[in-house]
Amino acid sequence: MRKFAIGFIVLLFFIIVLIWGTSGHNTDDVPIKKQNFQKESSQVNIAANSSIENPNLMDFILPFVGYVYGSPNTTTQIMLYWCYPKSRINQSVAISLVTDWPFVPISYNGERIPVFYRGYLGLLLPINFSQESPIVPNNYRHWNYKRLDVTLDFYFITGKYKKRLQLNIGNWTFEVEKEIPKLRPNITSYSLESIDFREGWRNVEYSFGLYNPLNVTIKFINISFKLPSGFVRIVNITVYNASVPYKINESNLVSSTEIPPGESRYFVITLEVDEKIKALFIQPKLLYSVGDNIYAIPGPPFQDTAMPFPCWYNYG
Question: Which residues of the chain have pLDDT under 50?
Fold first, then answer.
């Protein structure tokens, strides 16, 4: 009898716990949360669709800070990174970039715009130092440099739709090579681009190889560029007895910046870039000496882009 009573009490206890647990748990919370989530997802999709139909300024990694030292009628190019669904521009879409000297207007068929790093689309915009520019004097040798705040008209064109955005390309300084030195090294290779996947101050490496074709020693001095004060500074210069980057290592480090006749050196210059700069482009002066004379030639182009967030439309 006592065992039966104990068993009955235990059974009754489990029934009470079961009833209390069922009534105490608010099952209504589940559908409420699900409805809220669906509503939020719907709002996100609407916003995304709106952005897809209407490209906006926030889709671009801008503005730049740039310096270009170039020879007349030579061309370099910058890369505009654009976050937009590639699937939306695979059909009859045209993109036109229209701006002033020394940038060169260019148009793209949507199908030919590639996806680059982290899902971003890439639009190349050429820079050309033409003597026919309205803001460059006829005798370009007496023109020092020009600092410009550059804007660009971005046209997104389909059969039934046309949108124009005015993009701030940033603050640029352009300087034309006054005289091409006869005594000059040859550039053997260089680093074209750096992508940073984090925010904040960053160190980037601008590197290039130089070959000495002369019968006298060339001494590399430094690079030179005109940018707003404090935005970019040179931290360190490392020199290797090599001509290309894949051959550099600790065993061929050298302490001198001199390049003997018929030899090559590879220079790695560490730059510290301010966190406020989203995109940096430099084609600096390469300063060097031959004997007692100092010369300058245009260095290779280099772009650094801060890309802390992926473009989810085309990423993954």
Answer: 1-51, 137, 139-142
The pTM of this model reads 0.80
Whats the size of the chain, residue-wise?
Answer: 316
Q: Token pair of 17, please?
A: 């716990």
Phi-psi region at 107: left, alpha or beta (left = phi > 0; alpha = psi -120 to 50)? beta
- And the tokens for 169? 């390309």
Distance in angstroms (rounded) separating the CA atoms of residues 296 and 298: 7
pLDDT digits (tens, 9 = 90+) for 33-47: 333 323 333 223 323
CATH architecture of 57-306: Sandwich (2.60)
Q: How far apart are alpha carbons 231 and 227 in whole angstroms?
A: 7
Q: Which helix (H) or strand (E) holds 95?
A: strand 94-98
Q: Where does 99-228 show beta strands of DSSP type E? A: 106-109, 121-128, 145-157, 162-176, 186-190, 193-196, 202-211, 218-224
Q: Where are the domains of the chain?
A: 57-306
Segment 169-216, tens digit of pLDDT: 999 999 988 888 999 999 999 999 999 998 899 999 999 999 999 999
User: Bridge-partner residues for 81, per DSSP?
Assistant: 122
User: Strands 218-224 and 202-211, how do they pair?
Assistant: unpaired
Helices (H), 111-252: none
Which residues lie closer than 8 Å to 109 by C-beta, 6 or more apart? 93, 94
